[in-house]
Amino acid sequence: MVTTYHLGSNASLGKDVKIGCGSFIDDDVIIGDDVTIGKYVIVYSNSHIDEGTIIGDHCIIGHPTKLQLQKTDFSACSSKVRDFIIKEPVTKIGRGSIIRSGSVIYKHVIIGEKLRTGHNVLIREHTQIGDNCVVGTNTVLDGYIKIGNKSMIQSNCYICQTVIIGNGVFIAPGCVFMDNKKIILGEGLNGATVGDYVRIGGGSKILPNVKIGGYSLIGAGSVVTRNIRKGTMALGNPARIKRILNKSEIQNYIESIKNWTI
Amino acid sequence: MVTTYHLGSNASLGKDVKIGCGSFIDDDVIIGDDVTIGKYVIVYSNSHIDEGTIIGDHCIIGHPTKLQLQKTDFSACSSKVRDFIIKEPVTKIGRGSIIRSGSVIYKHVIIGEKLRTGHNVLIREHTQIGDNCVVGTNTVLDGYIKIGNKSMIQSNCYICQTVIIGNGVFIAPGCVFMDNKKIILGEGLNGATVGDYVRIGGGSKILPNVKIGGYSLIGAGSVVTRNIRKGTMALGNPARIKRILNKSEIQNYIESIKNWTI
Amino acid sequence: MVTTYHLGSNASLGKDVKIGCGSFIDDDVIIGDDVTIGKYVIVYSNSHIDEGTIIGDHCIIGHPTKLQLQKTDFSACSSKVRDFIIKEPVTKIGRGSIIRSGSVIYKHVIIGEKLRTGHNVLIREHTQIGDNCVVGTNTVLDGYIKIGNKSMIQSNCYICQTVIIGNGVFIAPGCVFMDNKKIILGEGLNGATVGDYVRIGGGSKILPNVKIGGYSLIGAGSVVTRNIRKGTMALGNPARIKRILNKSEIQNYIESIKNWTI
Question: Which of B5, B256, B262 is most worth mutating to test chain C (most C CB atoms within 10 A of its CB)?
Answer without folding.
Answer: B256
